[in-house]
Structures are given as C-alpha cells and as structure tokens.
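[worker-b] picked up task from shared queue
[worker-b] task type: protein-ligand structure
[worker-b] ligand name resolved to NAP; SMILES cross-checked against name lookup, match
[worker-b] sequence length check passed
[worker-b] input payload:
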Amino acid sequence: MKAIVVKRDKQRYRLAWEEVPDVKPGSDEVLIDVKATAVNRADLLQAMGLYPPPPGESEILGLEMAGVVAAIGPQVKGRRIGDRVIGLLSGGGYAQQVAIHPQLLLELPDSWSYVQGAAIPEVWLTAYSNLFIEAALQSGQTVMIHAGGSGVGTAGIQMAREAGATVYVTAGTAAKLKRCRELGASLGINYKQQDFVREVMAITRGQGVDVILDPIGGAYLNQNLALLKENGCLVNIGLLGGTTAEINLGAVLGKSLRIIGTRLRSRPLAQKIEITRMFADRFWSIFETGRLQPIVDSVFEIQDAPAAHDYVKQNKNTGKVILEISSPRH
Ligand SMILES: NC(=O)c1ccc[n+]([C@@H]2O[C@H](COP(=O)([O-])OP(=O)(O)OC[C@H]3O[C@@H](n4cnc5c(N)ncnc54)[C@H](OP(=O)(O)O)[C@@H]3O)[C@@H](O)[C@H]2O)c1
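[worker-b] inference finished, payload out:
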C-alpha cells in the first residue's frame, strides 16, 4: 500500500507518498480502506521528531480516518465489509489502509461525505472528554475555550452550547472570532488585541468562569487561574504557548481550583472506546439533526500533505484540514 513517509533532517522534514509494507490487522481488528484523514498539530510535532507514537503503534502519521471496512478479523462481530465508518487512531491514518479495533468505529451517516466524517474523531473526542468527563461541564455553567477557531475549539463551542453552557472564546483573527460566534460563542476575544481576563471579568460581573479548555499552556497559566471561579477547573490539552510558567498556588488553594492535563492518544484502548461510546450516546443523534456540524476548513489530496502541514503551521485554518485519499490501494 501507499502511505505518507516522513524524511527528517533534525527538526526539518519532508513528506512523501510512497510504497510501504501492507497493514496486517489482528484477529480482533478490522481493516479499513481509508478515504480521508485529517491534519492534527500532533502530526506536525511527530514529523519533527518531537512526539513519537505510543509504543507498539504505527509510525505512520494520522490520528483519525473515514473509510470503508475492507476486511474483518475472525474474532470481530457486528461489522460488514463495505460499512462506511469513522474512527480514532493512535497512528496510521495517512495511508491507503489502516487497522482499528471495531469498538472505536462510528457509523458514517449516509448523507455525509468521508471528508466530513474525517473531521470528527480526534478533535470532537478531545473536546468531549475534556469538557464533559474531566471538567464535568454542566448546563448553566460558563466555559472559556482558548484557540476557539481550532479544530478542538470549533467542536468544543458547539457541544458546550448544546449542553446549555455559556461559551467565551479567544482567537487571533476577526474571521475566526466571527465563526466562533456563529457556532455558539457568546463572546469572542482577540487575544492579540485584548486582555481576555479583563473582558470576561467585565461580562461576568467579576465572577469568572467555571471551566477553561486550554491548548496554550505556559503563556496563559496565571491568567487562566485568575479567570476561574471558586471550584473552577482548568484542563490543559496543549502547549502552543510554552511549557513553563511560575504558578501562583495562592490562587489554586484560595479558590479550590483543579488543574488537569490530558492526552487522548496515550489513553488505554478501553478508555478510548468508552469516550467514543459516551460521545456517541450523547451527541451523535444531534449531528444527524444538523445542529452539530463537523467544521471543514479545507481539503488537500494526500499527496499534498506538505502543503496541508504548512497551512496548519501558519494558523490559517478554522476547523479541520482534511487529507483525501482518492487513489485505490493497487
Ligand atoms: N491533549 C490532547 O489529547 C489533544 C488532542 C487534540 C489536540 N490537542 C491540542 O489542542 C490544540 C488544538 O488542536 P487543533 O488540532 O484543534 O489545532 P488547530 O486547528 O491547528 O488550531 C490551533 C490554533 O491555535 C492558535 N494558536 C497557535 N499558537 C498559539 C499561541 N501561541 N497562542 C494562542 N493561540 C495560538 C492558532 O489560532 P489563532 O489564529 O487563533 O492564533 C491556531 O490556528 C493543539 O495544541 C493540539 O496539540 C491536544
């Protein structure tokens, strides 16, 4: 089969669509003909050699896919060849085929394209698990979602809105903020021009927020702590703004705050299955009504993965950047 192969020289890398050994699915797995995958920040880091796959997982990039079931392991029940599915991967999505545990699969609605389907697994499951499992976001609460225009942000805004929470976001351009408001954010703050703590404190009459979903890390830590209410929860999912900061433990203790860090990719299979099921039980039927939408910014052919990576690196996307695989396996 063909897959994207990373050729690295220190942290610079090239991506080439090349012949690689075929995938050999286990007896409890299904083999998927991948029709579309998507770019994640983790792929950029992995390609630079800074984020190796978990032990035993594919070295090929790609944390999600939409495709068609091509073969079924002898221990697998309830799947048919030809099923249109999407699923979360630990790697291997930038390829013509990938193996996956069947309980990680969700059925792709007939009216959806593979491109739409590939926009879901990684960022919706990340936003879901952190907002609703880790931070236990409730109806009537307030949430700040940083990088609101990101894949995770655009998913998180929609689910938090649907759950009855009030959503505030930060983003770096007027166009991204506009899109966030269309998706349900009630306040959008341009972090390059405004102080998000001051803006949110003003709109909440000094109360702050219950939950913060934060992919920025070090640069925002103390502002995030200042913004949280008593018993508030900061969930850190990324380090786009650096890894270190001096922490004011007075704020943590004085307001009984929780600070949590999570990584979806390194969770055990059983947890990924549980997150997939809980997400589907709560939100899948709402997708079918159209009230929740996968947000696709742009679509590249898999051979153009280098251009897609550059696009994401330059922060140009609002929502997901998809890689389509239109060439059949042989
Ligand atoms: N822990 C996990 O399990 C997990 C899973 C998935 C994703 N993530 C992380 O979540 C984050 C979002 O992922 P994604 O794929 O949704 O990202 P994305 O679509 O590529 O969007 C990231 C956006 O973050 C903003 N940004 C970049 N650097 C920034 C900085 N220094 N300060 C403030 N904003 C900055 C940019 O938008 P602006 O134009 O607004 O600046 C950029 O477009 C990434 O850090 C990713 O690694 C974590």
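[worker-b] attaching auto-annotations
[worker-b] The mean pLDDT is 97.
[worker-b] releasing lock
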